[in-house]
Design a protein that fits this description.
Length: about 400
């Protein structure tokens, strides 16, 4: 089936969504919407920049709220004016669910890529979200049966992180100026300002402990391209004081660098999955405020937080959350991986196996769903991996 007439609306309000949507947009000639450097490089006209919905420092919350409001007004105004034939909504759940209701009134075909994580919390949402979308393009195999049961046409397309180009280890090390033989630690403090603010200081302190215990250990702080300038500048300055170079990832994200490292200290989220896909075992850390912690304890339905552990259904990679996310615990887990990397790498390979589909890449499958030419996947039964990887 040929592509529908009219432009494509893309809404990716977070760094991972920006990277997921970009290869889809490269398959389309006319796209506009919300995103960052990856979508811009793919040729999407950005009418709302993802950086405008992030903020740091005094007034950060109000500035972020204002940025989200501006993005909403820009997107809805342009959608009414341009009448997109299809919309690709990527993650950014609360914003995109509300937007889906608006787009249904315009007669726009809605494809949700990166489904709301109803398997983790508030599972009852699924039956309310399902009528708002024409198709769910899910990234994890166990999600397909869940969304079909809620009434949404659903296809497991594969995970977008598998599409990112990854250079060999030697080339990645050479690009970052890392020595050939020294152990190397990647520090990934997150793609949101509050994550960087809470996680970078203990991560840098953990690195200092590891260096003190092991001697020569190289490191880089990898900063997400979606971070606002103030956050990136603050993180770079902190890293410099700790004797670590900070690298601001380009429009292709952090994937181009990860193969250079032996272990990664990373915020929970897509970055932990990108690490295992690159063969770099992650030590996963996360901190939130007390109110958010209490809400999470009440609502979470999965025993794991790290995506690689959720895929495997077991705690293969360390998860250091809240009061456990200390420099001492991080240093301990990093050293554990460096001392015995073989098991962690085997677990990483198993994650990749479970996420990999035969056939076209995820972006090609999603592009087909946007035209309505979903083929046999739309009615196919849940894959065997849905049982293997169920959280």
């Amino acid at each position: 089936m040929s592509a529908p007439r009219g432009p494509l609306l893309v809404v990716a309000g977070e760094a991972s969504g920006d990277l997921a949507a970009a290869p889809v947009v490269r398959r389309r000639a006319d796209a506009f919407g919300m995103g960052g450097d990856a979508l811009r490089a793919a040729g999407c006209e950005i009418v709302a920049d993802v950086r405008d919905s992030t903020a740091m420092g005094l007034g950060g919350v109000s500035a972020r709220a204002l940025g989200i409001l501006r993005a909403w007004r820009s997107i809805t105004r342009e959608a009414r004016r341009r009448r997109p034939a299809a919309a690709l909504l990527v993650n950014y759940t609360e914003f995109n669910i509300r937007l889906a209701r608006e787009l249904r009134r315009l007669g726009t075909r809605v494809v949700f890529y990166g489904a709301p994580q109803v398997w983790a919390w508030r599972p009852g949402r699924a039956r309310h979200i399902a009528p708002l979308v024409d198709h769910m393009a899910v990234m994890f195999p166990f999600e397909e049966a869940l969304w079909r049961a809620a009434g949404a046409p659903t296809t497991w397309v594969g995970h977008h992180a598998l599409e990112a180009p990854r250079p060999p280890r030697a080339a990645a090390r050479d690009r970052l100026g890392l020595s050939t033989h020294a152990e190397a630690v990647a520090i990934l403090p997150g793609s949101r300002p509050h994550e960087v603010r809470r996680l970078l200081p203990p991560m840098l302190a953990a690195l200092a402990d590891v260096r003190a215990a092991r001697g020569t250990v190289e490191a880089r702080v990898l900063l997400a391209p979606s971070l606002d300038r103030a956050t990136a500048a603050s993180a770079t300055a902190q890293a410099a004081r700790a004797g670590v170079e900070a690298v601001l990832a380009g429009s292709s994200g952090i994937a181009a660098h990860l193969a250079a490292f032996d272990v990664a200290l990373t915020a929970s989220g897509t970055a932990s999955l990108e690490c295992v896909i690159s063969g770099t075992p992650p030590v996963i850390a996360y901190r939130v405020d007390l109110v958010t912690e209490l809400a999470a304890r009440a609502l979470l339905k999965t025993p794991h937080v790290g995506l690689p552990n959720i895929v495997l259904g077991r705690r293969a990679f360390a998860e250091l959350l809240q009061r456990d996310a200390t420099a001492a615990r991080m240093a301990e887990e990093v050293s554990r991986v460096l001392d015995a990397p073989e098991a962690a790498r085997a677990d990483a390979a198993e994650v990749v196996r479970r996420l990999t589909r035969e056939g076209p890449p995820p972006s090609a499958r999603v592009a087909d769903l946007l035209t309505g030419s979903s083929g046999p996947d739309a009615t196919r039964g849940a894959p065997r991996a849905a049982v293997d990887a169920r959280p």
